[in-house]
Design a protein that fits this description.
Order of helices and strands: HHHHHH
Helix content: over 70%
Distance between the termini: 68 Å
Structural class: mainly alpha
Largest sheet: none
Radius of gyration: 19 Å
């Protein structure tokens, strides 16, 4: 019986290790870094970091909205069009419904004005 359980445990451990390696635990750290870069008006560097986040759909809603927001702010600082940022309206609505971050709340009006 013990001989049959050990291989199963090894396989389960390997699958668990593989599953944890394919997730994006670094996404929140990258988003934090991009906040700092955008605050210091370094949008090129912020976009480079944001493009390292591969699977946006696997992120929790808070991080996904922050990703959309930071991309839009980087585009704004680079004086790029915001019309292609299709999820920006969703992020604007999210930050208006969750007004804990007052700086982002105030910037919703700025970004919304730039989208129209």
């Amino acid at each position: 019986m013990k001989h049959k359980i050990k291989p199963i445990l090894y396989i389960a451990g390997i699958l668990l290790l593989f599953a944890t390696c394919t997730r994006q635990p670094h996404a929140s750290a990258l988003l934090q870094q991009t906040d700092s870069l955008l605050h210091h008006h370094q949008p090129d560097s912020a976009l480079q970091l944001l493009f390292n986040i591969k699977d946006e759909t696997s992120l929790p809603e808070t991080e996904r909205m922050k990703l959309v927001w930071n991309k839009a702010m980087a585009h704004y600082q680079l004086e790029m069009s915001l019309l292609e940022d299709s999820l920006l309206y969703q992020a604007i609505a999210y930050y208006r419904q969750h007004p804990t971050d007052t700086a982002r709340l105030l910037d919703t009006y700025l970004l919304e004005g730039m989208c129209t």
